[in-house]
Amino acid sequence: MTETHPLQAAFRDAMAACAAGVHVITTDGAAGRYGITMTAVSAVTDTPPTVMLCINRQSAVVPVLLQNRALCINVLSAGQQDVAEHFAGMTALSPEERFEYHIWHRGQSGQLQVEGALAHLHGTLAAQNEVGTHWVFLVEIDEIAVHDGKTTRDPALVYFRRRFGSLA
């Protein structure tokens, strides 16, 4: 077991004090189908629409994303905590079984989007770089669907102090 440096522990605690939206990133292609729950998702620019994802280098999704290149960012509603827990590996479900417990549709890009999400952003990897323990991916978005108030009236699902919650 590796020991955490006090600065790393303090950094993690500080980041846990920042409420963050919860997303499930899905990718499907030649390397297979995979999904992962993430909070390290951030807008970069709207011209062209670009989002940044930060994923631990040890994550099983990294080689799949690097080969598939295409993905969907599913912005989860508070009613989708079970989706977040499944794709965070907080249950006994295998990576493939996680898809069986929810309703999925394909966007125009062909990527999987979960029913009931507040929004879906489909895109392609535009750049990537290794920084410390993580990969930083820049994703150029080419398809967006916002469903707030149309298909769900749920508030946003957030993660704060290592717990799920909601934000109206």
Proportion of residues in extended strands: over 45%
Number of strands: 12
> What's the N-to-C terminus distance?
40 Å
Main beta-sheet strand count, sense and barrel state: 7 strands, antiparallel
Helical stretch tally: 3
Low-confidence parts lasting 5 or more residues at pLDDT below 50? none
What is the SS-derived class?
alpha+beta
Form type: globular
Helix content: 10-25%
Mean pLDDT: 94
Order of adjacent strands in the largest pleated sheet: 3-2-6-9-10-5-4
Radius of gyration: 16 Å
**Which series of helices and strands comes N to C?**
HEEEEEHEHEEEEEE
Features:
globular; alpha+beta; FMN binding; 168 residues; aromatic hydrocarbons catabolism; 15% helix
Descriptive report:
It is globular and about 45 Å long. The model has no long low-confidence stretch (mean pLDDT 94). The chain contains three helices and twelve strands. By secondary structure, it is α+β, with helices and mostly antiparallel strands. The relative contact order is 0.22. The strands form three sheets. A seven-stranded antiparallel beta sheet has the order 3-2-6-9-10-5-4, with helices on both faces. The protein has a three-stranded antiparallel beta sheet with strand order 1-11-12, with no helix packed on it. Keywords: Aromatic hydrocarbons catabolism, Flavoprotein, NAD, Oxidoreductase. Belongs to the non-flavoprotein flavin reductase family. HpaC subfamily. GO terms for molecular function: FMN binding; NAD binding; oxidoreductase activity, acting on NAD(P)H; riboflavin reductase (NADPH) activity.
